[in-house]
Amino acid sequence: MHNRVRTCVSACFYYSGLVSLVHWWMQHSERHLIILCYHRAAGGNLRSHLFYLRRHFRILPLETALEELYMSHKKGVQMEDRRTLLALTFDDGYYDNYTHAFTLACELQVPITIFLIPGYMKSSNSFWWVETDHLVSHAQVDEVAIDGRTYHLERPEERNALAGTIDARVRCAPSVAEREKFLALVREALAVPPSGAPEEAALPLKWAEVRAMEESGWVSFGAHTTHHPDLEYLVDPAEVQREVGECRTMLEQQLGHPVRTFAYPHGSVGDKGLYAV
After folding, report:
1. Which residue from 26, 116, 46, 129 is spatially nearest to 88, judged by alpha carbons?
2. DSSP letters of 218-265?
3. What stretches of the chain adopt beta strand conformation (E)?
4. Which residue in 133, 143, 97 sits closest to 117, CA to CA?
5. What is the pLDDT of residues 22-80, one digit of tens each?
6. So where are the chain's domains?
7. How far is CA 70 from CA 4, 31, 37, 173, 277, in A?
8. 20 to 30 Å CA-CA from 248: which of 72, 117, 227, 263?
9. Domain spanning 32-121+200-276: CATH superfamily
């Protein structure tokens, strides 16, 4: 129902001419940069998104778009193409960024920027938020006690409540070590077998895939911390510095050139600012 409503609203905006009016206003006002943030590349209609965006916006790699935006604010600098600047970004570095986004980027000649989490690429473990859902869905027990509450897992509402509890604990963990320790305890309590793993498309990219994408010229990369903690909840300032600094160092060592863009995990424009050079 919600998808149908969104489709109807979008159609009304498009056919009423409001979209064209917004494009005209943005092209004739001070220069802007729109940054679209995706995560997964599969499971939606990314191809149609890219076709539309390529037609109506001037799409550049994020770093190039930022440089051009700053240049346009200097007196006397005029850009021939007045279309609004747009950068396409993908957070986290899922494997489907390689199988889907990369393929479309090359085919349609649309540049994209992917923000990587090198700690997961090194370990090949699944992302912690993917692991949360995996643990609950693969539990081998009917009842478990977590954080002083007993969950009866034969009831769907209890399974959902447990997933919410686990997610809240790991999302707000005071350190990466505490987060991983808690996940290990939950895995043991739920008797989840070590063999099963999430679908391949949800796993982190590998370095060979990253290098292949970069060599194409259509994909660039930025930093997204080493292990994707919520920086707001880390209690040790030194760990915050390590998560940011070591991430950049690892990426530069693997890619062989400076990395100048960074995306905050769970960041928002209002409190931290998503991107920085």
Report:
1. 46
2. SEEEEE--SS---GGG-S-HHHHHHHHHHHHHHHHHHHSS----EE-T
3. 33-38, 58-59, 85-92, 112-116, 143-146, 149-152, 219-223, 262-263, 275-276
4. 97
5. 454 445 456 789 999 999 999 889 999 999 999 999 999 999 999 988 876 555 555 56
6. 32-121+200-276, 128-190
7. 39, 9, 21, 37, 12
8. 72
9. Glycoside hydrolase/deacetylase (3.20.20.370)
This prediction's pTM: 0.82
Residue whose entry in the numeric block shows the structure tokens 């393929």? 103
Facing residues of 220 across strands? 113
Q: Using alpha carbons only, give the angle 187, 170, 126 rounded to the nearest 5 degrees.
A: 60
Token code pair at residue 181: 């320790």
Query: pLDDT tens digits, residue range 77-103?
Result: 555 677 899 999 999 999 999 999 999
Residue with tokens 């370095």: 207
